[in-house]
Amino acid sequence: MADFITLSRHILQRARQHREATGDFTILLSHIATATKVVSRQVSRAGLINVLGKTGETNVQGEEVQKLDVIANDMLIGLLDDLPMVAALASEEEDDFLPTRAGRLNGRYLVCFDPLDGSTNIDVNVTIGTIFSIFRRPEVGREARLQDFLQPGSALVAAGYAVYGSSTMFVYTTGQAVDGFTLDPGVGEYLLSHPDMRLPDRAKCISANVSNRALWSPGTRAFVDLVTDHAEPRYKKTTTRYIGSLVADFHRNLIYGGVFLYPADSASPNGKLRLLYEAQPLAMIIEAAGGAASDGRRRILDLVPDGLHTRVPLIIGGKADVERFEACEVEHGGT
Predict the structure, then answer these.
(1) How far apart are CA 80 and CA 86, in angstroms?
(2) C-beta separation of 194 from 179 below 8 A
(3) Exposed, middle or buried: residue 303 (CB in 10 Å: 0-12, 13-18, 19+)?
(4) CA distances (Å), 72 to each of 24, 92, 116, 273, 292, in order?
(5) N or C: at which end does the chain have fewer Cβ atoms within 10 angstroms?
(6) How far apart are alpha carbons 21 and 29 in whole angstroms?
(7) Is this model's pTM higher than 0.90 or not?
(8) Contact, 273 vs 328, CB < 8 A?
(9) Mean pLDDT over residues 279-287, rounded?
(10) In whole angstroms, how far apart are CA 265 and each of 155, 229, 309?
């Protein structure tokens, strides 16, 4: 056990490398991790404690709310609400941001999260997850404002996700490296299992919802045809894998190498994924792992949301593949 590095120990070791560290960030990240442990437990017992299925309500996105969506959302809000270093929270499940009780005036951080990504797959026991990101507030000494959240992804101080599958993993970055931890249920701790994760420079998988092909731009169709025709050496052995749970598709591609795309199309010209809750945090992670993320034309981390629920197209994965997608869009005239 002396060689085991827990998530808490890892965060502390990283914090010691910064002279200005106060311990606030360590506490914040540890609380997020604790929330994911509780959500993981609820997910694993979903069929036994009557939390499968829908609540009968719809969220701000117009999507049907799952019972576990509510549990995950409430858990994250509950654990972060009393932290004095957190000024406000923004959740994909909430219409507006939520000032916290303890840090609303002087908290330095803002936390954004998708409490349960892929929740439509809950009832069929498919891998789902939690995605989060952390911004530093531009100004303290006052209550948080909407504008505080409308920052480019390049301003993020940390991002990560938990994935609930055959095992529960917690993956995070502060920009320098990406580290993955596996939850040991017997110990109740996340243990470092995937240090310094790097995206393999290969296109093992392409993840796209091909049922939308008729809605795609000529450039998107050209890129997918290029990959699936296997004519180029890079794509000779590329397979198609699409789970329909963003965090699960992303995690698999991060491990094996590949590219995920949910591009703009004629039905959703501005894209469908949320910039604050999905695209920005995963873009920070993929860039720290050596990959790239784009909306088809621009780097995701350069985009500034115009609201809490701004949607964007997302092409994310290997740098060569993202650049090739962008080239196809230019060559074929986009949407």
Answers:
(1) 7
(2) yes
(3) buried
(4) 23, 11, 6, 19, 29
(5) N
(6) 13
(7) yes
(8) no
(9) 98
(10) 29, 22, 19
User: From CA 312, how far away is CA 187, in angstroms rounded?
Assistant: 40
Q: CA 110, CA 97: separation in Å to the nearest integer?
A: 10
Q: Which CATH architecture has domain 7-194?
A: 2-Layer Sandwich (3.30)
pLDDT, tens digit (0-9, with 9 covering 90-100), for 215-264: 999 999 999 999 999 999 999 999 999 998 999 999 999 999 999 999 99
Question: Strand ranges (DSSP E) for the chain?
Answer: 54-58, 64-66, 86-91, 98-99, 109-117, 128-136, 156-164, 168-173, 178-184, 189-194, 205-208, 239-240, 258-262, 273-274, 292-294, 311-312, 314-317
3.40.50.10190, 3.40.190.80, 3.30.70.3280, 3.10.20.30: CATH of 205-331: 3.40.190.80
Mean pLDDT of 329-335: 80
Q: What b-and-e string marks burial along 26-52, b requiring 16 or more CB atoms within 10 Å of the CB?
A: bbbbbbbbbbbbebbbbbeebeeeebe
Q: What is the pLDDT of residues 113-138, one digit of tens each?
A: 999 998 777 777 789 999 999 999 99
β-pairing, 258-262 vs 311-312, is: unpaired
Contact status, residue 285 vs residue 254, Cβ threshold 8 Å:
yes
Give me the amino acid identity at 230: H
Residue in 260, 262, 165 with CA at minimum distance from that of residue 204: 260
Residues 6+ away with beta carbon under 8 Å from 270: 264, 311, 312, 313
What are the φ/ψ torsions at residue 171 (nearest 5 degrees)?
-120, 130
Q: What pLDDT band is residue 2 in, cutting at 50, 70 and 90?
A: very low
Q: Which helix (H) or strand (E) holds 326?
A: helix 319-331
Tokens 């997020």: give the residue. 32
Task: Please state the domain extents for the chain.
Answer: 7-194, 205-331
Tell me how crowded residue 105 is: count the other CB atoms within 10 A of its CB: 14
pLDDT-derived band at 13 (thresholds 50, 70, 90) equals confident
